[in-house]
Amino acid sequence: VVILEGDLNLVEIFSSVQGEGTHAGASTLFIRFGECDLRCRWCDTPQSWKPTAECQIETERGAGAFRTLANPVSLSAAVAAVEALELESHRFVSFTGGEPLLQPEALRALARGLRGRGPRIYLETHGLCADALAEILGDIDVVSMDWKLASDVRRASDPRRGPVEDFHAAHEAFLRVALGAPEVMVKVVVTPTTGDAEIDEMTRRIARVEPEVPVIIQPVTPYGVVRETPSAKRLLALVARMERTLRDVRLIPQTHKLYGGP
Ligand code: SF4
After folding, report:
1. Which of 10, 122, 225, 234 has a beta carbon 3.0–4.6 Å from 92's, enabling a disulfide?
2. If you measure from the C-alpha of residue 79 to the centroid of ligand 1, how many angstroms do you get, rounded to a whole number?
3. Contact predicate 30/121, CB 8 Å
4. Does residue 4 carry a pLDDT above 60?
């Protein structure tokens, strides 16, 4: 019997299909955590930046209808919500955000409560909280980490615009920890302003840690202030550039945007 304790700040729980990365197309139950300490220019979930008063819970698998639960949500209520969405019939449970690793203890308890019940436990993270990851790594099956590029991403605490902090060293440290999980992938969102120098620095650091790790180039889906995606020519050039150093580079757009999925 798993005893569940603690509270979570959640934005939503819903059933869908993974739209990103190497498991795109696989049925996935999403648990979106509230709060994020970054501000990506292209973020498509700004509703998750701050802890919210209520969590939206899909009422049955595929219904697209929601009820609300007040935050913080108890672990037992979160587990009951995913059970009502036919937990066992999904291939993955995704912890996403916001940034799940900002709530490490609740995340670990939830992962333990859901692991071994069918779906693999999949963590989607901005890839910067290495210490928190080390604490929970034993309860995660797949780590999908972002590699944030300073040309498009800043800290929420930093009001300045433009490249003010580079995240490379923190991502490299995170990747070293993440490789202790059964499966790891790195995802980099690229925009028309992504520069070769920052791509090269990322590539060099990933290769230094593990040149075989899957690295997904995800062309930005225009959202908010980002109006354009890179040209096909630019994307193919990036693949070729990164393949000089890395062995598993893939170009995968967000597939759920193609059919209007959540
Ligand atoms: S890390 Fe994720 S949730 Fe946070 S701002 Fe970036 S895209 Fe949005």
Report:
1. 122
2. 25
3. no
4. no
pLDDT at residue 63, as a whole number:
92
Instruction: Select from 40, 96, 190 the residue to mutate for testing ligand 1; criterion: most ligand atoms less than 8 Å from CB.
Output: 40
Q: Nearest residue CA, atom 8 of ligand 1? A: 43
Cα separation, 178 vs 185, in Å, equals 9
Q: pTM above 0.85? A: yes
pLDDT for 1 equals 43
Angle (deg, nearest 10), helices 75-84 and 104-114: 40
pLDDT (mean) for 114-138: 97
Length of the chain: 262
Residue nearest to atom 2 of ligand 1 (CA): 98
Characterize 56-75 residue by residue with b for buried, 16 or more Cβ atoms within 10 angstroms of its Cβ, and e for exposed.
bbbeebeeeeeeebebbbeb
Binding pocket residue ranges, ligand 1, CB within 6 Å: 36, 38-40, 43, 45, 48, 97-99, 126
Give the pLDDT mean for 110-132.
96
